[in-house]
Design brief:
CATH topology: Rossmann fold
Helix content: 40-55%
Bound molecules: NADP nicotinamide-adenine-dinucleotide phosphate
Number of strands: 7
CATH superfamily: NAD(P)-binding Rossmann-like Domain
Structural class: alpha/beta
CATH class: Alpha Beta
Shape: globular
CATH architecture: 3-Layer(aba) Sandwich
Radius of gyration: 19 Å
Strand content: 5-15%
Number of domains: 1
């Protein structure tokens, strides 16, 4: 091969490497979904159950989880992930009952909206703990086993707020931005191991999220999408080994503008919110 052709072929191989390892199929796979009592987690659990996964359904509301377990055949795992050690205990308890985990969808999270400077310090800590630290500890608990087995997939549910930074949601945005950094760094770090990491970042989804954070969604755009669309993105992220999916995809445009032209993005955001 000519030197130039060889260089081109080697560059192509670096940019588009073969898939790192066997991605877990859903049929029979052991899957933990955190936040399964919520809108996105429940939709994801239903979708993956339909694809044949064996599910562990995590949340705090046992009665909601019991109903979902009946529907999907999953087992129920109750844990408050803001408690110290709860995330690693959840993984240990789940693997004891379900066996080694093939896929983890880390979706538990909570929002908060309001003025940053008057925010109660307890709320700050709670947001950072649940939306960032708990995901980190969950990853630390589940990844060693996956790496040892040379297969597995961790899906972190982020947010558009983590890519663009939403006003009045500073701490939530910071935590979700941290999650995006975690996903990217882990994906690089684990590339040689056969374990994959994906970030699925929804924009606005029609769940109880906004009521629960204490401030309803009151804008006309972007329109809330059904949780099932996020569930489909989670499945696609695993099936296709995608590093990052923004849902709906067109919201990738403001993310790209914010990344390459932050000044322009701020002017546009100031005008349209
Ligand atoms: N909805 C949106 O517009 C939107 C947009 C972007 C990103 N997201 C992200 O998507 C994820 C799921 O949100 P969602 O829309 O499904 O909201 P949701 O319906 O309010 O569900 C939140 C889930 O998190 C769990 N959770 C809350 N506090 C917890 C705690 N201390 N310990 C353990 N679990 C806890 C809830 O469990 P219990 O109900 O049992 O307490 C519930 O299962 C979150 O990470 C959120 O940040 C949502």
């Amino acid at each position: 091969m000519e030197p130039r052709a060889a260089r081109r072929s080697s560059l192509r191989a670096q940019l588009f490497p073969p898939r790192s390892g066997p991605r877990p199929p859903f049929a029979g796979a052991a899957v933990l979904v955190t936040g399964a009592s919520g809108g996105i987690g429940a939709a994801t659990a239903r979708r993956l159950a339909g694809a044949g996964a064996r599910l562990a359904l995590h949340g705090r509301d046992r009665s909601v989880l019991d109903d979902l377990a009946e529907e999907t055949g999953g087992i129920v795992m109750v844990a408050d992930l803001t408690a110290p050690g709860a995330a690693s205990q959840l993984v240990a308890d789940t693997e004891e009952r379900l066996g080694p985990l093939d896929i983890v969808v880390s979706s538990a999270g909570v929002g908060w909206a309001g003025d940053f400077v008057t925010m109660d310090p307890g709320t700050v800590d709670c947001l950072l703990t649940l939306n960032l630290s708990a995901h980190v500890h969950l990853a630390r608990a589940v990844l060693p086993g996956m790496v040892k087995r040379g297969r597995g997939h961790l899906v972190l549910v982020g947010s558009i707020a983590g890519h663009v930074g939403v006003r009045q949601e500073a701490v939530y945005s910071a935590a979700k931005s941290g999650l995006a950094g975690l996903a990217t760094a882990l994906r690089h770090e684990l590339a040689p191991t056969g374990v994959e990491v994906s970030l699925v970042s929804p924009a606005v989804v029609a769940t109880a999220f906004f009521d629960r954070r204490g401030r309803p969604y009151d804008r006309s755009r972007p329109r809330p999408i059904p949780a099932e669309r996020v569930a489909a993105a989670v499945e696609a992220a695993v099936r296709r080994g995608r590093p990052r999916l923004i849902v709906p995809p067109w919201m990738g445009l403001p993310v790209a503008v914010a990344a390459v032209a932050p000044g322009l993005y701020h002017r546009l955001a100031a005008r349209w919110g």
